[in-house]
Amino acid sequence: MRVGGITVLLVSCGLTVLELLRRTVGTEGFLVGVALSALPVPLLVAAFWWVGRVHPQPRRNLLFAFGWGSCAATLIAVLTNERVGDWLTSVDPGDSERLTLTVVAPVVEETTKGLAVLLVFAFRRSGVRGVVDGVVIAGLTATGFAFTENILYLGKAFGEDRAEGSEALDGATAATFLMRAVVSPFAHPLFTAMAGLGFALACTGRRRSRRVLAPAGGLLTAMTLHGAWNGASMLGPLGFLLVYVAFMVPVFGLMVWLAVRARGDQLRTVARQLPAYAVTGWMAPAVPSALSSMATRRVAIDLARAAGGEAAVRDAREYQEVATALALLRAGAEHRGAAPDFTVREGELLRRLWRCRAIAQPTLAQAALLTQRPVRVPPGWAARPGWVAHPGRATPGWPATGRPPASTAAASSGPGVPPGGGRPSWPVIPRW
């Protein structure tokens, strides 16, 4: 019911904003704008897909984010910017354009885009684990917003070229496309990623003040960057170039570094947290290390496809996603304290993990042997630091990880579980 209602809302907003744009720029300009605006979208979507690949967001979250940005956020922004701009023109005609560009548009647009992040974090909280999720949701929202907004600018530019008799390749259309799709395709995603980062920091902190200040600070930073970017366009070519090179490029580089580092942190969390489940028999000892490498994961998927076709691939992918979610859940409990529903959520993830183990664990173990240098398991490996949870770092009542079911033949003979349950005993594991 909720999904259907949201879909109807977004589709209605999308049809409305597209019709408004068509009336504004004309049918021909609209079609040209749609075609040119779509060109950078696959690059942007692929970039955010790569960032979030370690722990993929549920598809519904991603579709909602892009749909909100391209439909609802743009409709609200177009109508609000127009109304406020008209009011400013009646009050102060001389400064209305500058104020609209540097104040009104950044505040309105970043607020509407940030609403998507807020809604996902509020109603789909279980799929949000940290910085990467915030950046991905915000980035896809802004990608959708930029797509629809570019239709307006490119359609207007095409109309200007037609009115002046200019060729599109050397007129305003080409200049607008170069500026918005080649020089700065990541502008909107960069701004909104700040808001996503703020919401993510709020979700990963214990202090109540952080839960309020982090989103507010992220949204304010997004508005400031957006206002500075719009203001730079009023400084002339040299002024714009200076702002672009000296300010926007370093900020973009910093955000890229942060996203890549956060992605690496997720893999390191997998390597640190999953051995606790290997110790108790939920997975083979080779699995934690295998899952901490994207290259090994890819090889495991290929092995699963060769062994059992697409059905095996689905199980292998689900296993990888569930195991990663399990590691991030446990890391969050260690960092912020175990939530009241921790045991329930952990148990559900473990049951899903156990159902998918038949093909996933052997292929991961084999992939680890193919891609990582193996070493012999030393005596007492289960007691090595990092292989078990650290109760001292958790809140009182930290739930102990149970053992997998061993009452049936299928369970007791699963990968990593010796006959009768008990501690796994594989001859080799990859080096940590």
- In one word, what is the shape? elongated
Structural class: mainly alpha
Summed over residues and divided by their number, the pLDDT gives a mean of 84
Whole-number total of structural domains: 2
Secondary structure: helix percent: over 70%
Q: Count the DSSP helices.
A: 16
Number of strands: 2
Alpha-carbon distance between the two ends: 47 Å
Q: Summarize the helix and strand pattern as letters.
A: HHHHHHHHHHHHHHHEHE
The side-by-side strand order for the widest beta sheet comes to 1-2
* Sheet having the most strands: 2 strands, antiparallel
Describe the protein's topology:
Elements: H1 2-25, H2 27-37, H3 41-51, H4 59-91, H5 96-123, H6 131-164, H7 172-183, H8 187-203, H9 208-232, H10 236-273, H11 275-279, H12 286-291, H13 294-336, H14 342-355, H15 357-371, E1 374-376, H16 409-412, E2 428-430
Helix pairs in contact: 1-2, 1-4, 1-6, 2-6, 3-6, 4-5, 4-6, 5-6, 5-8, 5-9, 6-7, 6-8, 8-9, 9-10, 10-13, 13-14, 13-15
Descriptive terms for the model:
432 residues; mainly alpha; two-stranded antiparallel sheet; 74% helix; 1% strand; elongated; disordered C terminus; PrsW family intramembrane metalloprotease; transmembrane helix; PrsW
In words, what does this structure look like?
The chain has two domains: 2-268, no CATH class; 274-430, no CATH class. 74% of the residues lie in helices and 1% in strands. It contains 16 helices and two strands. The protein has helices at residues 2-25, 27-37, 41-51, 59-91, 96-123, 131-164, 172-183, 187-203, 208-232, 236-273, 275-279, 286-291, 294-336, 342-355, 357-371, 409-412; strands at residues 374-376, 428-430. The protein has a two-stranded antiparallel sheet with strand order 1-2. Helix 4 (59-91) crosses helix 6 (131-164). It is elongated, with a radius of gyration of 25 Å.
